[in-house]
Amino acid sequence: MSNFQYKNNRITTAVLLAAGTGSRLQPLTNDMPKCLTEVSGTSILERLTHNLCYHGFKRLIVVVGHMDDCIRRFLGNSINGLTVEYIVNPQYKTTNNIYSLWLAREAIREAFMLIESDIVFDASLLGDMLYPDCIAVSHMLPWMNGSTVTISQSQRVSKLNVKHREIPGISEYKTVNIYSFSLPSWRLVEKQLELHISAGLVNDYYETVLAEMIATGSLSFKPVFFNAGRWYEIDTLSDLYESELIFTRNRARLKRRIPDKVFHVRPD
Questions:
Q1: What would the pLDDT profile of 49-92 be if each residue is shown by its tens digit?
Q2: DSSP state, 265?
Q3: What's CA 98's distance to the chain center, in Å?
Q4: What is the mean pLDDT of residues 207-234?
Q5: CATH number, position 231
Q6: Is 53 contained in some domain?
Q7: Helix then strand then coil, % of the chain, to nearest 5
Q8: pLDDT score for 24
Q9: Which of 124, 186, 194, 239 is deepest in the core (most CB within 10 A)?
Q10: Which residues 6+ apart lie within 8 Å of 92 measured at CB?
Q11: 100-121: string of b/e by CB count within 10 Å (b at 16+)?
Q12: Computed from CA positions of residues 30, 119, 13, 219, in that sequence, does the dihedral angle turn out positive or negative?
C-alpha cells in the first residue's frame, strides 16, 4: 500500500525492542541496559523519546528484559508526551529479537513504527517514516554490517538480505532497523512470526520473517533513505566512540569519557 493512502493517518505508536543484554557493550552494560548508554551526554533512550515527541507520537510500547527496572524508572508511565506500556520478555537471555517482537503482538492495535534500542539518529530523518510500510535504509559505509536490502528500479524493496555480504551489490543498502507497518501488513507478519515461534525458532532475527515475506511478495516496503552521517547503530565500544564523533565535536570530552586503550582511536 502506498503512503498516499495514509496521508491523513500518520503513525503515532512506536514499538521499541529493548530486552537484550548488550553484551558487546560491556562493561558499560554491566550496570545498565544498552539503551541508557549516553551519546554526547544524552542516552539513546532519551534521544529517541525526544525524537518521537517531536513527530507527534502518543504511544510507546517497550519490550524489556535485561535490567528492565532501570528502563521503567527512566520512562515511568509517560515521558515527553508519550504514554508508555511495557511488555516483559522473561526469556531475554536465551531468545533473540524475533521473540521480543512476537511478545508485543497483543499490544499492537494500530499502525506502528518498529525501532531497535541501539540506534541514534537525528529527529529530522524520521519524517518520511511516519506512514505505514516503510523501511529506513542507508548508503553503505565501511563500518556497516548486518542486514541489507536490494531496491528495485520502481523504488520498492525487492529483497532483504539478512546476512551482510563483504562486497554489497550496487543496488544494496544497509537497513537502519527502523520499520513502519500498516495494521493489515502487521497481521500478516504476526501470522508468520507465530509459525516461527511455534517451530521453536526463538533465536532467529525477525528480519528472517520479513525477508521470507518480501521474497514471496506478501510484504512490500518503500525505502526511506537516511543520511549515513546522521545516524549510527551502537553494538560495541568502538561504535559508541564513532557515534560520539558524529553527535559531538568536543573531542577532549570524548577522550576523557572513553579510554583510548579500549579500541583503536581514529587520528584527528
A1: 999 999 999 999 999 999 999 999 999 999 988 999 999 999 99
A2: P
A3: 13
A4: 93
A5: 3.90.550.10
A6: yes
A7: 35, 25, 40
A8: 85
A9: 186
A10: 19, 20, 21, 65, 66, 100
A11: bbbbbbebbeebbbbbbbbbbb
A12: negative
Per-residue pLDDT of 21-38, as tens digits, reads 888 888 888 888 999 998
Residue 3 belongs to a domain: no
Determine the residue type at 101: L
CA–CA distance, 208 with 252 (Å, rounded to integer): 42
Residue 70 grid coordinates: 532501570
Q: What is the extent of the structural domain holding 40?
A: 11-259
Alpha carbon distance 2, 221 (integer Å): 9
Structurally, how many domains does the chain consist of? Answer: 1
- With beta carbons less than 8 A apart as the criterion, state whether 49 and 75 touch: yes
> For the whole model, what pTM was predicted?
0.86
Sign of CA dihedral 174, 177, 178, 179: positive
**Residue whose grid cell is 558524529:** 246
Longest dimension (CA), the chain: 53
Q: Tally Cβ neighbours within 10 Å of residue 37.
A: 21
Distance of CA 117 to the CA centre of its chain: 6
**Residue 72 within any structural domain of the chain:** yes
Indicate whether 260 pLDDT > 50.
no
For residue 131, the model assigns a pLDDT of 95
Least-confidence region, from 1-15, 127-141, 153-167: 1-15
